[in-house]
Amino acid sequence: DGGITQSPKYLFRKEGQNVTLSCEQNLNHDAMYWYRQDPGQGLRLIYYSQIVNDFQKGDIAEGYSVSREKKESFPLTVTSAQKNPTAFYLCASSTGLAWGTDTQYFGPGTRLTVL
Amino acid sequence: QQPVQSPQAVILREGEDAVINCSSSKALYSVHWYRQKHGEAPIFLMILLKGGEQKGHDKISASFNEKKQQSSLYLTASQLSYSGTYFCGTESTDSGAGSYQLTFGKGTKLSVIP
Question: CA of B36 to nearest chain A CA: how many angstroms apart?
Answer without folding.
Answer: 10
